Amino acid sequence: MGADMGLARNVFLGSAALCMCAAAMPVAAQNTRRHYELPAQSLGEGLRAIAQANDYQLVADPRALEGRRSPAINGEFTPEEAITALLARSGLEAEVRGQTIILRGRVAPSRSEEVDSAADNQLFVTGSRIRGAQPTSPVIAASREKIRELGHSDLGSYVRNIPQNFSGGQNPGVISSLQTGSENTTSSSALNLRGLGADATMTLLNGHRVAYDAVSQGIDISAIPLAAIERVEVVADGSSALYGSDAVGGVANILLRRDYDGLLATARLGAATDGGDVQHQFSAVTGRRWSDGGFMIAGDYNRATDITASQRSYMRSRQGSMTLLPSQRQASAVLAADQALGDVVEFGIDAHYNRHKSVAALPFTATGDVTQLGTISRPDIEAYSISPTIEFKLPGGWQVEARATRAVSDSHIIAEIYSGGSRSAVNHVRYRNDLWSAVNGGAKVGHGAE
Q1: CB atoms within 10 A of CB 432
Q2: Domain count, the chain
């Protein structure tokens, strides 16, 4: 699968950023002066006021805005002049492209961003895992059977029920919008241990990294079919000494099945009793073991309809077209294989692929349909990773392992902005993350060592 996906395809990547939508009108007024009378307030509130006043869309990292204040402004300004005045003492910069305001200039950027045709970015990771080191905090572990017994149909649903995980930001039910400040622009499910942010929790697949998604540098854990996993292990406390700075909140490792022999296909249908969320899920796993190796392939297709405000009595005060849970369509596949090459060398490979689409509607008023004044967001994410490993068994109980990982995730988010019953603008935001990782190390096995 990796060769087919390969470097020839434009796979989608998520370098996380926040897409905050405001109503937009024709581009007339980029140079039009308007009277502003804004008090000193948080920088996010000030920028939001300017975006709303000019029907602009704001793209920003919420952490860059955290704790920053904007000065009071009073007078006639163009939108760019007003934004410049607000950012004067913030150390940040903004660029206006059409009707989109792009905030730049984080003091310590934690990820690459790409909007429209920005250049690809690569992240090289070396030595982020200390082989044989044991975590000092308790490990939360759950097998595939245990996850199913708890009533979960995917890993995203499972991790949202871990007490140490904050599910308020990386949850398909939390829609990204100007009003909520949500970071979840792609309706993904990412671990956010201790609520420190998805980029403070490291998520590994069989011990190796995968490319970050457009959910504030999180990993969409629902992209791994439940049928493919052996178990999930979570260290819900800081593990930076072993894994690096992006493990401040903790680490999760998804371990794939190795010893499967046969073929199993399953189907699941379901719906919410109050309407909406009609789910169709189809999964299959197959594998074969022989004396010195084997393989496992698993695939999953999941489709679910949306839930709107009109379908819930407690949301009667909101406009009926407002999306509470976006419609989603996801196809994913995983490969795990290993083969002994004699008595000394063993080769293994892990690979995964994911395609995820969703649609969410956000009306800007409580009385008008989204097509009267609002935005419809259509994220489309495609990602893959390939990780070959070669292990040498040396005399004296020593092992030497070398691993390389190639991972790409690319997200395209189309925001259709409506005003007066017609589509007035279409904004296209793209996040791309391109990762190469190389790790090598050795350990002595036996006597309690790994």
Answers
A1: 25
A2: 2
Full residue range of the structural domain in which residue 41 is found: 18-110
Measured N-to-C along each axis, helices 79-86 and 43-54 cross at an angle, to the nearest 10 degrees, of 180
H helix runs in 126-235, sequence order: 144-149, 155-159
Say if 391 falls within a structural domain: yes
Q: How far is CA 430 from the centre of its chain?
A: 13
Listed residue (37, 134, 50, 139) closest to 87, CA to CA: 50
Look at the pTM and tell me if it is higher than 0.85: no
- CB-based contacts of 50: which residues, under 8 Å, 6+ apart? 36, 38, 56, 79, 82, 83, 86, 101
Which residues, at least 6 apart from 116, have a Cβ–Cβ distance to it below 8 Å?
A: 97, 428, 429, 430
- Count of all residues that appear for the chain in the document: 450
Q: What is the CATH number of the domain that holds 93?
A: 3.55.50.30
Residue among 82, 84, 85 nearest 35 (CA): 82
What does the block give as tokens for 386?
A: 């390939």
Residue type, 51: A
Q: Is there a single domain that holds both residue 118 and residue 61?
A: no
**E-only strand ranges, 165-261:** 201-205, 229-235, 250-256
Q: Are 384 and 354 in contact (CB under 8 A)?
A: yes
Which amino acid type is present at position 397? G
209-231 pLDDT, tens digit per residue, is: 887 776 556 788 888 888 888 88
The answer to whether residues 288 and 152 belong to one domain is: yes
Min mean pLDDT across 173-182, 371-380, 440-449 is at 440-449
The three-state secondary structure class of 196 is coil
The CA-atom distances, in angstroms, between 204 and each of 209, 222, 299 are 5, 13, 19
Q: In a 3-state reduction of DSSP, which class is residue 383?
A: strand
For residue 82, tell me if it sits in a domain: yes
- Is 232 domain-assigned? yes
pLDDT computed for residue 284 by the predictor: 94
Q: 278 exposed, middle or buried (CB, 10 Å; 0-12, 13-18, 19+)? A: middle
Domain boundary among 110, 140, 156: 110
Neighbouring CB atoms inside 10 A of 216's CB total: 29
State phi, psi for 428 to the nearest 5 degrees.
Answer: -120, 115
Angle at 224 between CA 297 and CA 360, to 5 degrees: 130
